[in-house]
Amino acid sequence: MTTSPTPVCARCSRTLTWIITPWPEGHLCSTCWTRALETHGRCTGCGTERMTPGIAPDGGRLCTDCAGIPGSYFCLRCQGEGRRHRDGVCAHCILTDRLAELLDDGTGRIRPELVALSEGLRGAGRPRSVLSWTSRAHVQRILRQLARGEVELSHDGINSLSPWRSATYLRDLLVHHGVLPAVDRQLLLFQRWRADWLPTIGDVEHRRLLERFAAWHVERKLREAAVRGPIGPSRDAQARRGLVQAAAFLTWLTAHGQTIGRCTQADLDLWHSEDFLARRPAQTFLRWCMATGQMPRLAIPTRSTANPAPISQHQRLALLRRAVTDTGLPLPDRVAATLILLYAQPASRITALTVDDVLHDGEHVTLRLGDPPSPLPEPFASLLLAYIANRPNLTTATNPNSRWLFPGRRGGQPLQPNSLKHRLRRAGIPVVHGRTAALRHLVLQAPAPVVATMLGYQAETTTRIAADVGSPWTRYAPGDHTRPPGPSPTRHRPRG
Ligand SMILES: [Zn+2]
Ligand SMILES: [Zn+2]
Ligand SMILES: [Zn+2]
Hints:
The chain is mostly helical. It has four domains: about 1-70, no CATH class; about 70-180, no CATH class; about 185-310, no CATH class; about 315-480, Intergrase catalytic core (hpI Integrase, Chain A, Orthogonal Bundle), CATH 1.10.443.10. About 50% of the residues lie in helices and about 5% in strands. It has helices at about 30-35, 65, 90-100, 115-120, 125-135, 135-145, 155-160, 165-175, 185-195, 205-230, 235-255, 265-275, 275-280, 285-290, 315-325, 330-345, 345-350, 380-390, 415-425, 430-445, 450-455, 460-470; strands spanning about 40, 50, 55, 60, 85, 90, 360, 365, 375. About 35% of the residues are buried. The structure holds zinc ion (3 copies).
């Protein structure tokens, strides 16, 4: 028995923040007090099986009578012995009332399918923790929705619930108590991972989009697969990689001043070209975004897994040679192919070029793709000049004086980028792979920031590709060469 001026717990020596009637051994902190009242077993004093909150000098457990603990610990409702929660009634009885109310199907009784859940929760060793969980507003809302059939009592129904953590926890409970069929173990691991991972996404818009994708696509597919047989760890890992890369893509777009809704083909190509294999898992997300109208419908870059590298330098040279010599190909296609293979230009940028972007000082030909203009070596210069003298679609009445390098059929309009891509593919020129190869080769020949400036890409992109291919220019400092004054080139700047 102690009455110290600064009271500490007689069991754990913690400083007391609130004082309750002292027990024979002294004051108890709330933790020790609660734990004591949740201890049941055989009393070493009288041998009765009951609540044994007391501790004998030899360490044995004692009932309230044998320990001399003051107060009353019998529930006025059920007469059970334990801590009284409220109005002399134990937590177990209060929990029973609460579950009867929350799980009422509207007829004054617990929805029959949920009786097992109710029994399971009531049978839990610590009713107070269940009471605390079921006192949260969103948990009450979810339970009521399920009980009244406002949300389907199924895995799909649970998936539609928010917040995720509570829905996942409830799913575990429903499966554990046999209300819902057991789900695949790997699927559960995925769900838990997802519940932990999503809150780490800082951008709220990104997180919401990824939440929807995870629930409505990734998890639905996994559950469909689980019906046919156990999901292996590799499938789970693949699903996680897909989400992680999807998040990486959204972050990348933000860093480039873009959003998923305004994403362009050039963005998609560029992102893939930086590290195709690592980023490919995001393609499921991209297809889903296009199908659900979250982003414009664009062509998803593909590359055969049998040949995972961009086209080789050898292939690139062969294609360039063909562009110059193959007179069987239409001249516009040959010129466009040259620009793609030499400068890694997206189709949208090529069709935006005007004849004024081709500078000819009588000796050298340069192309204004960025600042400074990029030199165009022979024999490509001659090919381009020959083409400019014979551009198509100039004879139509609508286009007499077009300055577009690739005039379209419609008056005053350049050729549509998709038409150009289509024509090049038909001619056997791989547009995306060709660009990737060109970009990779370019950064081996010049410092990445210089390439970036010349071509109007962001320096960080070309720097990353430079590091990727082991360019000797990787550590080139952009500040070493000052750019000529004037507005810095923006990406994919429309021209003309
Ligand atoms: Zn204590
Ligand atoms: Zn006893
Ligand atoms: Zn009771």
